[in-house]
Amino acid sequence: MLPTREEAEKLLKEAASRNPGPWENHSRVAAHCAGCIARYCPDLDEEKAYILGLLHDIGRRFGVTGMRHVYDGYRYLEELGYDEAARVCLTHSFVTASVAEYVGPRDTTPEETEEISRFLAEHPMNDYDRLIILCDALAGSEGVLRVEERMNDVKRRYGTYPQKKWDGNLRLKSYFEDKTGKDLYEILGMNG
Among 121, 16, 34, 43, which residue's Cα sits nearest to residue 85? Predict the structure, then answer.
């Protein structure tokens, strides 16, 4: 199940009031990117993609955390009955479906980390998972960035960015360019 766009907007606004920060606008930029790209994918729904992008970081409502935001967002949306949105909370940080690639503090308990790993192993990525992972890698807090710019920004902030994750994000860009038949930066209104 999925909330409506209006419900998702309310959830994001309430979450941002609890924990203000650049993550709110990053979520809006990710939603914009997801909707724009999905518009050109005949098997994806633009509205659903937008909503998933809007809620992918909703776990940040609980405070400034690292990998914990993935788990908290998943649990929170599951409790609300929004399983499709909960899923992308969990998958959006793992382009290779491995917790080893997480960039930032690993602040989940061993049991929670195992639960994330098990979920990733038991639920193969679908195109909505792939799209939100990509859009997370396109969305800065001030607007759309080239994938390499966004990954370099994360690398500057955390001091590292795994090569497998880097390569995985670039593969996703190519995957969606093949799927849409268009340059993603053109779809997103970026020049050159």
Answer: 34
| pLDDT recorded at residue 191 | 65
- Is the Cβ–Cβ distance between 183 and 177 less than 8 Å? yes
First CA to last CA distance, the chain: 39
Note the pTM of the prediction, 2 decimals: 0.96
Task: Tell whether the model's pLDDT for residue 192 goes beyond 60.
Answer: no
The encoded tokens of residue 15 equal 């979450």
What is the per-residue DSSP string for 135-188? HHTTB-SSSB--HHHHHHHHHHHHS---HHHHHHHHHHHHHHHHHHTS-HHHHT
Q: In the structure, what pLDDT confidence band is assigned to residue 109 with cuts at 50, 70 and 90?
A: very high
